[in-house]
Amino acid sequence: MGLLDRRSDNVNYDWKDVFRQSALLLLLMGFIGIIGGQVLHQMEETLLQFPVFLFLLPLMNDLGGNLGCVLASRLGSGFHLGIIDAAITDRELNENVLVTLIMGLVTYLSVGLAVAASSSILPLGPTAMNLFIVAVGSGIIVTVGTALITVAVSLISYKKKLDPDNITIPVLTTLADLLSIVSIFFMVWLVIL
Fold first, then answer.
1. End-to-end CA separation in angstroms for the chain
2. pLDDT digits (tens, 9 = 90+) for 17-52
3. Which of 70, 187, 72 is nearest to 140 (CA)?
4. How far apart are CA 84 and CA 30, in angstroms?
5. Which pLDDT score, from 0 to 100, does residue 122 have?
6. Domain-by-domain residue ranges, the chain?
7. In 3D, which of 50, 6, 25, 8 has the Cα closest to residue 165?
8. Burial class (CB in 10 A: 0-12, 13-18, 19+), 5
9. Does residue 4 register a pLDDT over 80?
10. Alpha-carbon distance 181 to 8, whole Å?
11. For 10-191, CATH number?
């Protein structure tokens, strides 16, 4: 009997179960990724009009996914170790979400300041203030959205005796990418267009 067989969290770690939990989910996330590509294609005119967003979009995708993955990892480990209860009212869970939201705000404020500062050096199109608002506004949307997605998917998968490590990160990274694309487009539409 191996170490993983004696775990107390009632999640099966056999490779076949990992495959069963992940295979269809990864296929579904691939299709959702295609939708994200189509949304991005719809933004082509705006992106060509304001190329600064071509630089901002990958950064936003990475940051949103990274923040969510850190939270997903902490929640999954907390569930497995019994440190976090699979309940929305759990204090440790809520503290982890709060830290993620604070990290997101600080990170996107920094990105907004950097993009706004670079607009004074390079002709980026929109005003520095508009770039700052788009970066920070879309960052807040992405941070809150990824935190909500992470908590929901982690709780649901763990309660259904699925390993959150197999479920949460593929769902989160795909949806965070889609959310980043949509939030930047929304903020550009709201602030600039």
1. 62
2. 778 888 888 888 899 889 888 888 888 888 888 888
3. 187
4. 31
5. 76
6. 10-191
7. 25
8. exposed
9. no
10. 40
11. 1.10.357.20
